[in-house]
Amino acid sequence: MKVLNSLTIMIFTLLLVGCGEGEHDDIRKWMAESSRDLRGRVPPLPELKPFPIVAYEAHDQMDPFSANRVEPEKREGGGGAKPDFDRPREQLENFPLETIQFIGVVTKTKSKVRYVLAQVDGVVYQATKGNYMGQNFGRITEVTDTEIILKELVQDPSGQTTDWVERRMTLQLQEGAQGKEGGK
User: Rg for the chain (alpha carbons), in Å?
Assistant: First the structure.
């Protein structure tokens, strides 16, 4: 009985092996035909043209990368006005002058002091003559009903000196949503 079982198992195995061999012949044949004409082709590298050698003949001229060319010649200041970097900064100095809107003036009746109402980003600030405003060390010198006059300290716009220069700026009263700040 053992021999019969072993013989039966071997026959079934041979039948299965015989049936399975030709199953993927069509795929193997197609793969062989498709890959027959495929060859790796790498195009040749382009020919490199040599660059002409050019001699540097400007050694006696100013170096275009030297610090002297980048920075203008600095002269010592003439002792003019300079900002006080040690004083505590005021609230309105955190904003550029262009973003500050002059929206009104309030006058205290007893002391006759005029207070400026300035608005930045929806927040209303109060300042008076002598307070600072803007990011260029602008100090309020005069307050009228229609404008704020400031004296700003900026470094020499020409860049030729390290001097600080005073310039006069004005902020016009904003009438409704219109009105602009102006300079000089």
Answer: 43
Residue 59 or 101, more confident? 101
Measure the CA–CA gap between 107 and 116, rounded to whole angstroms: 9
Taking Cα atoms as reference points, which of 159, 155, 168 lies closest to residue 82? 155
* pLDDT at position 145: 87
Neighbours of 132 (CB within 10 A): 22
The model's confidence at residue 183, banded by pLDDT at 50, 70 and 90, is very low
Walk me through the domains of the chain, giving residue ranges and CATH numbers: 67-183 (2.30.30.830)
> Which residues make beta-bridge pairs with 101?
119
Distances (CA, A) of 65 to 32, 69, 74: 65, 7, 18
Pairwise CA distance, residues 174 & 163, whole Å: 34
Copy the structure tokens of residue 38: 């495929």
User: What is d(CA 48, CA 42) in angstroms, rounded to the nearest whole number?
Assistant: 17
The percentage of the chain sitting over the pLDDT mark of 70, rounded to a whole number, equals 79
For residue 61, the number of C-alpha atoms closer than 13 Å in the C-beta half-sphere is: 5
Report helix, strand or coil for 135. Answer: coil
